[in-house]
Amino acid sequence: MEKSIKKIVVIGPESTGKSSLCVALADHYKTIWVKEFAREYLETNGASYTYGNLYDIALGQTKAEDDGIKKITSTQNAEVPIFIDTDLHVIKIWSEFVFNKCDNRILSEITKREYDLYLLCDVDLPWVKDNLREYPDVKVRQKLFHYYKEEMAAQKTPWKVIRGNYEERLADALKFTDKILK
């Protein structure tokens, strides 16, 4: 019997609760989640980055996703979802916002990867400062959210906007995820 792993990506601008939502969803469904590789990369290599670093981050993100899928395939018996904290669309938007361009290898890889659902986190949570976050300004965060909405509308995978406090976000994410799992 072939396993059907549903791949659900949680995306959005920084400080929108993506990681917290992934943790809560993985806990609820008794599965795993893939951490955002960019955070690990920047914590290891320093918060400054170049245009070229974004391709390295993209490679790390796809490897982390692939490793997570292999882990589920080898350890789970039931059909379970995997939750992914950001994907290459995030790197594309980040690259275009900061550098006004995106590496064609990232764009090409975006077209090859398939997911079952995107959960797009809105910027309605309070900003939480940390050493890696760059855009605390509300207007910039709203502008970035708009870019994410445009990106989601331009691709074929179903997507839903997630809003509200952490409990409301989780409730909506569970509702949308349950629909995909049926």
Explain what this protein looks like in three dimensions.
The chain has 182 residues and is an alpha/beta fold. 54% of the residues lie in helices and 12% in strands. It has helices at 18-29, 37-45, 51-75, 88-99, 104-112, 138-153, 166-181; strands spanning 6-11, 33-34, 81-85, 117-121, 159-162. The chain has a five-stranded parallel sheet, sandwiched between helices. α1 (18-29) crosses α7 (166-181), α3 (51-75) runs antiparallel to α4 and α4 (88-99) crosses α6 (138-153). The two termini are 17 Å apart.
Helix-strand layout with pairing:
Elements: E1 6-11, H1 18-29, E2 33-34, H2 37-45, H3 51-75, E3 81-85, H4 88-99, H5 104-112, E4 117-121, H6 138-153, E5 159-162, H7 166-181
Parallel strand pairs: 1-3, 1-4, 2-3, 4-5
| Beta-strand percent range | 5-15%
Please report the number of helical segments. 7
What gap, in angstroms, lies between the N and C termini?
Answer: 17 Å
Structural class: alpha/beta
Overall, the morphology is: globular
Q: Describe the oligomeric state of these chains in a short phrase.
A: single chain
Report the radius of gyration as a whole number of Å.
Answer: 16 Å
Helix content range of the residues, please? 40-55%
Average pLDDT number: 92
Strand order of the largest sheet: 2-3-1-4-5
How many DSSP-defined strands?
A: 5
- Main beta sheet: 5 strands, parallel
Low-confidence stretches: none
N-to-C series of helices and strands: EHEHHEHHEHEH
Question: What labels describe this entry?
Answer:
single chain; 182 residues; 7 helices; 5 strands
